[in-house]
Specification:
Length: about 1000
């Protein structure tokens, strides 16, 4: 009887989570119901499953609304009906048009109009919905004679009075008004609740025809969905046989390319993988990925294939990945095995500048009807909840900030705040808006609108209205088309090297960046600023602690740095064993044989498979089930128990003592959920090495590429510092040398206009384009004549020194600019000045402090270029010790002067602490630790230079200063405001620091890890 139910997928309207809606229906004795969320089908697939379990007949539909006005309700008779509605809504979403008042001609859809919007004539499939409170209108002949086309309409939007208020709050959030400004048309009626089915039947007892019509619709709506059949595009060619023939041919060619003609091990592995791929009918998935890579290569793009796909030798031979699975002993079963029923997941990275070209190819190659981005539900989160709900209750910005930034126990205790908290907590985990998945692409066999309507966000690629979990559930597996700045660093470096030095570098040849002596030296010393994945303070510290001087150690480091691995305590134990290989015993011979590379520690997800296989005797595929079960990926508790029982049974068959097997299983259980895929780590390591190779041998080009890709872990200032340390001469932007991005001429680096935060980007491009078209600017007058720019823009360029080629001072240039522009009219450009010679003005000579330029730069760039921050200090003291000497001062107290680069918040059981990263007066990096008691007395006070006092602790080759005291050192007053006291220290506040906050439980201490370092005595 319920043909119009809303779940919380009716965004900012419905209040009932899907599972609770179904449970509510069970409580009300409902045996059939329709889910009709507003302009979406996001919840229908979970709804179908839930109803089937509950013994309720699911009816699938959609409520069509425009501008908050209900047009009609559509109910699908079958799968064709859903597709009709999806295509209809997609058309209007794409065209951004309002929905028509009358429904189109549907062949497989029932349409229900609300009484107030019912047309005078109805088609065969159309009905009028009448609410219980509207039944008295049937006394009127206008409606009495139309009962043969009426059905029961009892909408469901909320469950109780509190949820009705929540519904109003959601409507106010959606309309961006305070609660008191809502009108009755903005929210639903207070009768939109689900009641016992007998109560509804009794309401319509005098109208058997209306009940019969309702039952007829329910009876004729039979939407069935096959969740088991894959929905992805099946074949790359036309059939499975041709796909396998093509894949085999490509694999054989690739095998010879990668391994030569006589590698028996690689050949055996290739045929083994091909057999599994064929059995699971995944050849099309491999070939589509190969096709995308083939196009990428044809465009000269650099890509990185990573994730578990790098466990496959087929992927390696097809050029999808650059990781040799034989070299690193990678198990194919981690990626694909006969127990896995969903397609494999390839993660492919491109430069952020080239990704859209790849996407355009995929959409055009496989058809816009069959390709879409996966959607995602953006939920109400803690901070956004209190802001959104607080606004509805009319709280001012200051109070909203306090609610959002502070935990609830620190909130004010007045009546309004309590209401905000009460309703805010109800909204936690509710979907707030739909968005686009960052990288997941769906390629379907049938038109994708058979499953969902599509939306067209501003980016220009259509998205489905459900997330990746629902997509996987219905048989649509995503292709991850990712982008990152790290590849942009590499790609742009190679282009800059060719342009600047005339050297063509084949960075795709991974051999050049795995065993370079100088690269390994840089790696072991943590000299990796700018390099993908290995430049953060944590990673540089780990590299030094490990004295990491080879590729395989880097692969391990890329895994153990992950938060989960560190949280499990495995990082500390690995560092200990790496540095003290003689101070532990392997737990069992299998651990030495299979995990010797990682000192008997399960660092990678593949290690779980190895131990299950070689110690427990389980097949590798079952080992992967164990890994997936441990990490909570799609396995029930009963499935995990079954795997566990099987593990112990197999161990007993092999004669292992029960106590030993229990300890090994405990280790698997402790670490499997935290571990990281080895193939993923190896892919990261290759890219890290490529970055490092470029940094070592072509440092200036590499750092300019990092700057142009808008950096990585650090702010631009750090990379500008690094390019200076690499031997370059860095110049401020110049109208005759600079472009939008930073440019390089030999070792002269000219910062790009993009770094002038207050200069409009269109002006920056105009300067560059006009110069390329008509030559260099001859003077300030010539520039003003050729570029449409106001006095504000001119002043920015003058203050940054962009006209220094004229030989005039900034003060002189400002006078000239104002004299020219005071009566200048834009329409006279190209008329007034072009016919007149440049006027020579008699200008006063004004004295300037040598540091005025530095303060101009801080104001416009947020950091100085013409001098070092240390030059701006009032003191000439530069510390007693330099970073390069810290290793000699273990356990000694030192006093240093340093410039703050970044700090990281770290929770501990004793309270919050920070790790700081600094540069000394010579520009070298070093690190500090600030414990809770020290921070209480000597807190960080923003960016700038500090005097530090602390004790040096050398932890496995890596020195850290544990801070006892620190004090921020004063800079000289801004000389530009020598007579204006209030402004003398204003610009100083723009000197930045990088701060990363961490919200997690404290990591365990060494004694809490409980990983034995000796053999068990049984």
């Amino acid at each position: 009887m319920y043909l119009n139910c809303h779940s919380f997928h009716s965004l900012r309207y419905g209040t009932i989570p899907l599972e609770e809606l179904i449970q509510h229906a069970i409580n009300c004795g409902v045996n059939a119901m329709a889910l009709t969320d507003i302009n979406t089908v996001t919840g229908i697939y979970d709804f179908i499953k839930g109803c089937n379990i509950a013994g309720i007949k699911p009816v699938i539909g959609m409520e069509f609304r425009s501008e908050n006005q209900l047009r009609y309700i559509g109910l699908a008779k079958n799968a064709d009906g859903l597709a009709e509605m999806n295509r209809f809504l997609t058309r209007h979403n794409f065209d951004n048009t309002t929905l028509p008042l009358s429904a189109p001609d549907f062949d497989h859809v029932f349409i229900i109009y609300p009484l107030e919007n019912a047309p005078s004539a109805l088609k065969e499939n159309e009905y009028i919905g009448i609410r219980p409170e509207q039944l008295q209108k049937l006394i009127l002949s206008e409606w009495k004679n139309r009962q043969e086309k009426m059905v029961i309409l009892q909408p469901v939007t909320f469950r109780n009075k509190k949820e009705y208020e929540l519904h109003k709050i959601l409507r106010a959030i959606d309309l961006n008004v305070i609660l008191s400004k809502l009108t009755p048309l903005d929210f639903c009626r207070d009768s939109e609740v689900m009641v016992n089915i007998q109560r509804i039947s009794s309401c319509y007892g005098q109208y058997p025809e209306i009940i019969a019509n309702t039952e007829k619709i329910i009876e004729q709506c039979n939407f069935e969905f096959d969740f088991k059949t894959p929905k992805n595009k099946k074949f790359y060619t036309n059939n499975r046989k041709d796909d396998m023939n093509l894949l085999t041919t490509l694999a054989k060619k690739g095998l010879e390319w990668r391994y030569g003609k006589n590698n028996a091990e690689a050949k055996s592995r290739m045929f083994k993988e091909l057999k599994v791929i064929d059995q699971l009918e995944f050849s099309g998935y491999f070939l589509i990925t190969w096709d995308i890579i083939r196009f990428s290569n044809s465009q000269g793009f650099l890509h990185i294939g990573r994730g578990s796909g790098a466990n496959s030798i087929i992927a390696y031979c097809l050029g999808i990945t650059d990781i040799c699975p034989l070299e690193l002993d990678l198990y194919f079963e981690r990626f694909l095995n006969l127990n896995r029923k969903s397609p494999p997941d390839f993660d492919i990275d491109w430069s952020w500048k080239e990704r859209d070209t790849i996407l355009e190819y995929i959409f055009s190659r496989y058809g816009y009807e069959h390709v879409a981005f996966c959607g995602t539900n953006v939920e109400f989160k803690y901070r956004s909840i209190f802001r959104e709900v607080g606004k509805v209750f009319g709280l001012p910005k200051e109070e909203l900030d306090a609610l959002a930034k502070n935990p609830m126990e620190l909130h004010a205790t007045n009546k309004v705040v309590k209401q905000v908290q009460q309703y805010g907590m109800l909204l936690e985990k509710y979907p707030n808006q739909r968005s686009m998945h960052s990288c997941g692409i769906l390629i379907s066999e049938e038109p994708i609108t058979n499953y969902t309507p599509l939306e067209m966000p501003p980016k220009g690629f259509p998205i489905v209205l459900f997330d990746m979990h629902i997509a996987e559930d219905i048989g649509l597996e995503k292709f991850d088309i990712l982008s990152q700045r790290g590849i942009g660093h590499i790609d742009d470096s190679v282009k800059l090297i060719e342009k600047n030095r005339g050297i063509r570098l084949n960075i795709r040849d991974t051999a050049i960046s795995k065993n370079e002596t100088r690269c390994n030296e840089f790696l072991a010393l943590g000299k990796t600023i700018g390099c993908f994945y290995i430049e953060s303070p944590d990673m540089r510290g780990l590299l030094r602690r490990l004295n990491c001087d080879n590729y395989k150690t880097l692969v391990a480091a890329s895994s153990i740095i992950r938060p989960g691995v560190a949280q499990s305590g495995m990082m500390k134990e690995y560092i200990f064993r790496h540095n003290h290989p003689d101070k532990f015993e392997y737990f069992h011979p299998v651990f030495e044989q299979q995990l010797g590379e990682t000192y008997g520690i399960m660092v990678y997800q593949e290690d779980v498979i190895k131990i299950a296989l070689h110690y427990g005797g389980l097949p590798a595929a079952d080992g992967d089930i164990l890994r997936r079960a441990m990490s909570g990926k799609g396995r029930s508790k009963s499935a995990l128990q079954k795997v566990k029982d099987n593990f112990f049974a197999c161990c007993a068959e092999k004669g292992h003592p029960l106590g030993l097997s229990e300890e090994i299983y405990r280790q698997i259980e402790s670490f499997a959920g935290y571990s990281f895929c080895k193939a993923h780590s190896a892919s990261y390591a290759v890219e890290s090495y490529q970055s490092l190779y470029l940094k070592v041998y072509y440092p200036v080009e590499f750092m300019v590429a990092v700057i142009n890709n808008q950096g990585g872990f650090y702010r631009t200032e750090v990379y500008v510092h690094e390019v200076k340390m690499s031997g370059a001469c860095v110049h401020n932007p110049c109208v005759n040398k600079s472009e939008f991005e930073t440019t390089l001429y030999g070792t002269d680096v000219y910062l790009g206009f993009m770094h002038l935060q207050s200069l409009e980007s269109k002006t920056a491009f105009m300067i560059q384009n006009e110069r390329e078209k008509n030559g260099n600017y001859k003077s300030l007058e010539d520039f003003i004549n050729r570029i449409s720019i106001g006095i504000e823009g001119i002043q920015i360029l003058i203050f940054i020194g962009a006209f220094r080629f004229t030989g005039k001072t900034k003060n002189q240039l400002l006078v000239i600019a104002r004299l020219i522009l005071i009566n200048f009219k834009p329409e006279n450009r190209n008329l007034m000045l072009i016919q007149e010679p440049v006027k020579e003005y008699e200008l006063p000579k004004l004295e300037r402090s040598e540091f005025e330029d530095a303060f101009d730069e801080i104001e416009l760039l947020s950091f100085p270029i013409s001098c070092s921050p240390f030059d701006l200090l009032k003191t000439k003291f530069r510390g007693d010790v330099l970073a390069k000497d810290l290793l000699k001062h273990h356990k000694k107290m030192v006093r240093m002067l340093a410039y703050l680069i970044s700090r990281k918040h770290v929770p501990t059981k004793m309270g919050a602490m920070y790790f700081g990263t600094w540069i000394d007066a010579e520009g070298e990096f070093f690190d500090t630790a600030h414990f809770t008691d020290s921070l209480a007395k000597y807190p960080f006070q923003g960016g700038g230079c500090y005097l530090l006092l602390g004790n040096v602790e050398v932890d496995y080759h890596f020195p850290t200063i544990t801070i006892i005291k620190m004090e921020k050192m004063p800079f000289i007053p801004d000389p530009r405001y020598s007579n204006a006291g209030d402004n003398q220290y204003k610009v100083h506040q723009q000197i930045r620091e990088d701060v990363s906050m961490t919200h997690r439980a404290p990591y365990p201490q060494e004694h809490e890890i409980n990983l034995p370092r000796n053999k068990m005595i049984l």
